[in-house]
C-alpha cells in the first residue's frame, strides 16, 4: 500500500476528534440526565435509581458504538488513500485548521492528532526548511535584514493578507527586508510556543545564507506574547539571536490579558455553582491552554504551572519588563469613534487599550512604551489591525 498522504492523516485525525467529541457530549448528556432524575439536595427513590441504571446501559452503548465506528472509519481510510490524495489544500482548509488548533490545539498535541499544526517558518503559504540551500531557493534576492511576521490566536500566516492588504509584503518591499512568516499551534501554552520560537529563530540565524544585519518583528495579538516569551527564554538560555533584534511592533497584543477570557472565567464559576447548570461548565472548559493564557497574558511556565487553568485566582504572573536595548512599538484599536470616551474600555472588542499599550493599574507593571512609539486607531476592530493603511504608514516610519 502506498505511503499515507498528509490529507489522509488529517482525515484520520478528524475521525478521532469526532469520536472523542461524541463521547464527550454523551458524558455531558448523561450528567444532565442524572441532575434531572436526581434533583440536588433531595433523596433518590428506588424508581429513580432504576431509571438511572437503564439510562446508564444506553449511554455506555453509545460510547462503545462510537469507538467501534471510529475504529472502522480509520481502517476504511487506509483503503481510500489514492482518492483522498487528490484533494488539494486550500486557504479555507488552512483557516479551519488554524481555528481548530487555537481552540483545542493542546488536546490535539496531547493526543498526537495529525490535525495539530507544527511550528514552522513559511513564505507564500509554503514551509521553509531551515537550511541555507532552502532559504536561498525561497529568496533569490535574500539580504541580511529579516522581517518576521507572527500571527495571533486561532489564525495562520496566510491571514496576514486581509482585504488584499499585507503589512509584511508592503514593508519588506519598501524597507528592503526579507519577509518570513511564522505558523504555529496557538492552542498550546504561550510559554511552550515561546521556547520553541526561541530555538527556531536561533537556528534560522545560524543558517541564514548571508550575514544577518538585523531582525525586525511584527506581531499581532497573541503573537506579541509569544515574542516576549521567546525573548525571555533566549535570555535564560543565552541564545545570541537577540543581538540582531532591533525592533518589535505589537498590533493589539493583550500584554495584560484580554477581558473576554476573564469574562469566560467568571462564566465558568457561575455554571459550576448552579447544580442544574454544572454539566454545561464542561463546554466552557473545552478552550485551550493558549486561550486561557490570554486571561492575564502568561509568558512563562511558572505563570500557569501548579495553577488550575479554570480556577479563579487573579493575576499571578511574573512581571517581565521589555528589554532596554530593543525598540518596542505598540498599536491599539478602538471600535468606537474618538469622541466616545467609553469605547476605550472595549478597545478593539477583544483587547482593551490599556492592555494593548502595556499600561497597568500597578505602575511597577507598566511596560513603559515611549509615547512616540504608540498609536491608537479608531473605528477598527481586532482584525482591522491587519489591513489598516494608517498602521502601515506608521510602521514604515518606525521600522525603517
Walk me through what this model shows.
By secondary structure, the chain is of the alpha/beta class. Strands 2-1-4-3-5-6-7-8 form an eight-stranded mixed sheet, sandwiched between helices. The longest helix has 34 residues. The termini are far apart. About 8% of the residues have low confidence.
Secondary structure layout plus pairing:
Layout: H1 6-37, H2 46-79, H3 81-84, H4 91-110, E1 120-123, E2 126-128, H5 132-138, E3 145-150, H6 167-174, E4 178-183, H7 190-207, E5 214-220, H8 222-236, E6 245-251, H9 259-273, H10 281-284, H11 289-293, E7 327-334, H12 343-346, H13 353-356, E8 374-378, H14 389-398
Parallel strand pairs: 3-4, 3-5, 5-6, 6-7, 7-8
Antiparallel strand pairs: 1-2, 1-4
Amino acid at each position: 500500500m502506498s505511503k499515507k498522504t498528509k490529507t489522509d492523516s488529517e482525515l484520520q485525525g478528524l475521525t478521532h476528534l469526532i469520536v472523542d467529541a461524541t463521547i464527550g457530549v454523551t458524558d455531558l448528556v448523561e450528567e444532565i440526565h442524572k441532575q434531572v432524575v436526581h434533583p440536588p439536595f433531595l433523596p433518590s427513590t428506588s424508581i429513580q435509581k432504576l431509571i438511572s441504571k437503564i439510562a446508564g446501559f444506553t449511554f455506555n452503548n453509545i460510547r462503545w458504538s462510537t469507538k467501534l465506528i471510529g475504529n472502522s472509519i480509520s481502517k476504511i481510510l487506509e483503503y481510500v488513500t489514492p482518492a483522498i490524495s487528490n484533494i488539494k489544500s486550500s486557504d479555507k482548509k488552512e483557516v479551519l485548521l488554524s481555528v481548530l488548533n487555537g481552540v483545542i490545539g493542546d488536546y490535539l498535541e496531547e493526543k498526537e492528532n495529525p490535525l495539530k499544526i507544527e511550528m514552522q517558518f513559511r513564505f507564500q503559504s509554503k514551509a521553509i526548511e531551515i537550511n541555507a540551500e532552502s532559504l536561498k531557493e525561497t529568496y533569490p534576492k535574500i539580504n541580511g535584514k529579516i522581517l518576521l511576521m507572527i500571527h495571533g490566536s486561532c489564525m495562520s500566516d496566510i491571514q496576514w493578507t486581509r482585504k488584499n492588504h499585507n503589512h509584511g509584503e508592503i514593508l519588506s518591499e519598501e524597507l528592503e527586508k526579507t519577509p518570513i512568516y511564522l505558523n504555529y499551534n496557538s492552542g498550546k501554552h504561550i510559554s511552550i510556543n515561546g521556547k520553541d520560537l526561541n530555538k527556531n529563530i536561533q537556528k534560522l540565524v545560524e543558517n541564514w545564507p548571508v550575514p544577518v544585519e538585523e531582525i525586525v518583528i511584527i506581531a499581532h495579538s497573541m503573537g506579541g506574547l509569544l515574542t516576549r516569551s521567546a525573548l525571555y527564554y533566549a535570555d535564560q538560555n543565552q541564545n545570541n539571536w537577540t543581538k540582531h533584534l532591533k525592533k518589535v511592533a505589537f498590533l493589539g497584543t493583550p500584554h495584560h490579558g484580554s477581558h473576554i477570557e476573564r469574562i469566560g472565567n467568571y462564566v465558568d464559576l457561575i455554571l459550576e455553582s448552579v447544580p442544574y447548570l454544572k454539566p454545561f461548565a464542561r463546554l466552557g472548559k473545552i478552550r485551550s491552554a493558549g486561550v486561557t493564557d490570554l486571561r492575564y497574558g502568561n509568558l512563562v511556565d511558572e505563570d500557569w504551572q501548579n495553577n488550575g487553568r479554570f480556577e479563579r485566582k487573579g493575576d499571578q504572573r511574573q512581571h517581565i519588563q521589555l528589554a532596554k536595548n530593543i525598540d518596542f512599538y505598540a498599536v491599539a484599536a478602538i471600535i468606537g469613534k474618538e469622541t466616545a470616551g467609553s469605547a476605550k474600555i472595549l478597545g478593539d472588542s477583544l483587547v482593551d487599550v490599556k492592555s494593548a499599550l502595556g499600561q497597568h493599574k500597578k505602575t511597577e507593571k507598566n511596560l513603559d512604551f515611549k509615547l512616540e512609539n504608540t498609536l491608537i486607531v479608531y473605528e477598527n476592530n481586532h482584525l482591522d489591525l491587519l489591513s489598516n493603511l494608517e498602521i502601515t504608514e506608521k510602521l514604515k516610519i518606525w521600522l525603517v
